Amino acid sequence: MKKCSYCGYETKDEDIRxxxxxxxxxxxxVLGKKEIExxxxxxxxxxxxxxxxxxxxxxxxxxxxxLDFGVIGIVFNILAMSIxxxxxxxxxxxxxxxxxxxxxTVLFIAVVIFYVVYGTLISxxxxxxxxxxxxxx
Length: 137
Ligand SMILES: [Zn+2]
Fold this sequence. Notes:
The chain is mainly alpha-helical and about 140 residues long.
């Protein structure tokens, strides 16, 4: 939006050279309503609730990763992912939380697979059980 410096004539025409009202050639760039709205929307893009959710997602992601070797870690991982997913494009914490949740879920699955494989190998006597080797020693 352009505004005449002399008479205050406003126009949406960005290429205007001569003011139709006073003939002045001095135009200044002013922010139109839409431009102001766009700036406001950008700053309001993330609400306080979303910021909190992003932080919650981050915390859950960290807890989930830490607890992954237990069963409960997966709960935190999924929560971190679902909450983080909503804010991941708006806040860095949400993004980190989302990816921590994702990484935690992958790690959890890997841990489960490891336990299953390890347990199977022990039951078939391929790998000596830790408990067995300590009790017989
Ligand atoms: Zn003018």
